[in-house]
Amino acid sequence: MISWRKHYKKSLIAIGLLLSTSASIHAQGDPKKGQDLFKANCTACHALDKQMIGPALGGIVDKVKKEQGLGPDWLHKWIKDNKALRASGDKYANQIYEEFNKVEMLQFPNLSEEDIDNILAYTTDPPKEEPKADAAATATDASANVQQSKDSQLNSQAILAAFVVIAGLLLWLLVKIRQLVKLQQTPELTDLNSTRVNSFSELYKKYSFVGKGVIAILAVLALYGVWNSLMWIGVYKGYKPEQPIHFSHKIHAGENKIDCQLCHSGAKYGKVSEIPSVNVCMNCHRSISEYNGKYMEPGKDKAFYDGEIQKIYAAAGWDPAKQQYTGKTSPIEWTRIHNMPDFVYFNHSQHVVAGEKAIISSFNKKNPNNQIDVVCKACHGKVDTMNVVQMANDFTMGWCIECHRTTEVDMTNGYNQEYFKNLHDKLKKQYGEGAKITVDAIGGLECGKCHY
């Protein structure tokens, strides 16, 4: 009997220790701090509620404990250096590696033990998101909108009544004027009216020289109008067509600070900047399946942006649930905005690399209130502020020539200093020490430079 009581007490103690250990698994760490760490380090490959590149991490502590009998210490080792853990022969570590197509997880030796505890606490008990808007405030806004609608309706009715009154007054005035005209139709006045010009043809015969002059002026103006219209054929400044997938440069380049050349790599190394392929989009959107940004365009919401991301998946043939490609692709038919004529030669790399400093400096001097920091903006405008990209400049021959005449060559470049040394000396002798070398001085206005 005594022996049974001892065992019973020991069992209670063991259960108490187990419960306290289990509780400590959930109690360790700060979920709020863990949320920030999770977003900074984990969201590229993981989510709490669904599989992405890696498994869903919601409740991962309990899952590892129940399925494998492993505690948080194993997760610490896995997060710190999963490669070393696999190399040690750990069965579960190698099982995960095989299960997820041998995609090696990043190592995080920079995370402290406390940081990892915070992340695990977040996966176990994520803090609830605060409501976006207070119900009372929403109700107030709704009542304000109703009142505003009523006021607008009353204003419309008042304006309509005023128009009816004015129309009545005008009709009354017309009747009175007609009566006065009839009273003044005396015989003398009738004889006078018979001598007046009553048609345009009579007026033209009487003043034919004036009519011919007016016609000549109108003909000149018409010819100028036709010539001016012909000169602007192919100039589409402000053109911003709708695209098959809504891509906001303001969100990508503006809010998220993505470098232009990450997507348009050809602008730096080739003649053409290229429209990015869907594979470039998938470099990021393979792990970004929904929009969680704070910025929203007018009239658009999270559901709209999530739907556009799904269009990318459909084009790439990507199954986000299985995290694999299906092989069923659908090319995206983008509408081209900037398109130089076939007889014009333009090399992006020449301007982006060789002319970068010179173009930025020249643009900022001419536009002190509209400074730029990236060479692309000199021609394409501030794309990082555009929800829908539009043609920001004329892109005419005159526009290009004006730029070549005013943009100074970057003489701080060692190559340019050596290559244009003789030309620089010649200009100094001809125009004095302060002479500037602009692009037109080095052949920037030669026809063969831009035309085949």
From TrEMBL:
Superkingdom of source: Bacteria
Pfam family membership, one: Cytochrom_C
Signal sequence range: 1-27
PROSITE patterns referenced in this protein's UniProt entry, alphabetically: CYTC (PS51007)
Keyword Acyltransferase carried by entry: no
CDD domains per the UniProt record, alphabetical: Cytochrom_C3
Keyword list, A-Z: Heme, Iron, Membrane, Metal-binding, Signal, Transmembrane, Transmembrane helix
InterPro entries per the UniProt record, alphabetical: Cyt_c-like_dom, Cyt_c-like_dom_sf, Multihaem_cyt_sf
Membrane spanning residue stretches: 158-175, 209-227
MF terms in GO: electron transfer activity; heme binding; metal ion binding
Domain Cytochrome c: 29-127
Protein name (record): Cytochrome c553
